[in-house]
Amino acid sequence: MNNPYRLLGLVLSLSGAVLAPVFYFIVDSVALTGTAISEVILGITCIAIANARPYISPEAARLLLRTGMENTSALIEELGLTSRAVYLPSSMRGGKAQALVPLTEEGSLARARNSLPGRLIVRYGAGTEDMAIAITTPGSVSLELLESRPGPAPGEIESALNYLLHGVLDIAGGCRVDIEDQRVMITINDCRMGYEDIWFYRCLGSPVASIAAAIVAEATGSPVKVAEERTEKQKSLIALEIVPKD
Amino acid sequence: MKIFNNLVITLVIVFGLLNGIMAFLGQNDLSVYFIVDAIAYLIITLLYVYLNPRARGALNAVSGVIFAGFLVIVAMKVIEILK
Predict the structure, then answer these.
(1) Which end of chain B offers a freer environment for a tag, N or C, measured as fewer CB atoms within 10 Å?
(2) Exposed, middle or buried, A141 (CB in 10 Å: 0-12/13-18/19+)?
(3) B43 touches chain A (CB under 8 A)
(4) What are the pLDDT digits (tens) for B13-58?
(5) Does A119 lie in the same domain as A36?
(6) How distant, in Å, are the alpha carbons of A218, B55, B78 from that of A40?
(7) For A117-166, how does the pLDDT look when each residue is reduced to its tens digit (9 = 90+)?
(8) Hey, are the CB atoms on A51 and B58 less than 8 Å from each other?
(9) How many CB atoms lie within 10 A of CB A134?
(10) What gap in Å lies between CA A220 and CA A240, rounded to an integer?
(11) Are A48 and A85 in contact, with CB atoms under 8 Å apart?
(12) Based on the structure, what is the number of domains in chain A?
């Protein structure tokens, strides 16, 4: 019984169920009986949401995340990749969203073909410099948690981000999305997985930026890059750039 | 989970306020307490749109039971009036 919601639910339901008849028949107070009934409703609600909590502890989830991050960091550092990752929609990667980290700065993802081969090292254009490493990021995996693909409107992207970051993953408060030309500005409140100046984050962005970029790429059907990420007055500001196609 | 905590706290505050107001107004019909609490519960759980599918399903089940109770009480009141 280490689920606090279940314990709270049982205590509230049982005490409410015992107190309701006592208040009604013995104390003869309708108001207190009504309160006891509310207590039962609250208790049942707590038991219901106790079963909706994740099966694994936050520590176990953190363990898995760090393992993946350190392996990807090692790969990126060993190859000496300094380019920023470009998040591709699933339509460009055979149904699986991934990020491409160009091997050189000279390549241009604007020349990328509409459907790229599903390999680790990818040639995305005709030029010899158009080579990249394909990486599955936290953002790529988080798309599977969405119930439906969001549309390109700022409201739809905002709704998808709120659902994932606040409702499902509980790593941020609300967010706001503004789109101007090819630039998407996202303001996230109360972000609990912020940016750190490490190679992994410089290349792929923080986990929250990764999720945001993956959602925007999927919503717009275009490659997206994390242009800038900073924290200002307890808000995370993420600037994404939609890579135009040639 | 912060969103779950917010939901529970919101329900506690709303139920407390509604029951307090009805007690202050001298409401003596228990079914009125239940109906008002049920309506408040249904509205609040509907407003929490960003819950994960499992939590949403669980709350929908609870809402269904509460709504069924609400309908039973309303039916009994209607029968009473028609008699």
Answers:
(1) C
(2) middle
(3) no
(4) 999 999 999 999 999 999 999 999 999 999 999 998 788 888 889 9
(5) no
(6) 43, 18, 26
(7) 777 887 777 777 788 888 888 888 888 888 888 999 999 999 999 998 88
(8) yes
(9) 21
(10) 12
(11) no
(12) 3
Q: For residue A12, give its domain range.
A: 4-50
* Token digits of residue B82: 């028609």
Kindly determine whether residue B59 and residue A31, on different chains, have CB atoms separated by under 8 Å: no
A32-90 residue pLDDT tens: 999 999 999 999 999 998 877 766 777 777 788 888 888 888 888 888 888 888 998 88
Residue where a domain stops, chosen among A93, A112, A135: A135
Residues of chain A in contact with residue B50, where contact means CB-CB under 8 angstroms, are 162-163, 166-168
User: Is there a single domain that holds both residue A97 and residue A157?
Assistant: no
Task: Reply yes or no on whether the pLDDT at A243 is more than 90.
Answer: no
Q: Outline where DSSP puts E strands in A15-76.
A: none
A interface with B, Cβ–Cβ < 8 A, is 5, 8, 24, 30-31, 33-35, 37-38, 41-42, 44-46, 48-49, 51-53, 145, 147, 162-163, 166-168, 170
Q: Please give the ipTM for the structure prediction.
A: 0.92
Among the partner-chain residues B3, B8, B53, the one whose CB lies closest to the CB of A42 is: B8
Q: Are residues A86 and A160 in the same domain?
A: no
**pTM attached to this predicted model:** 0.74
The rounded Cα A168 to chain-centroid distance in angstroms is 8
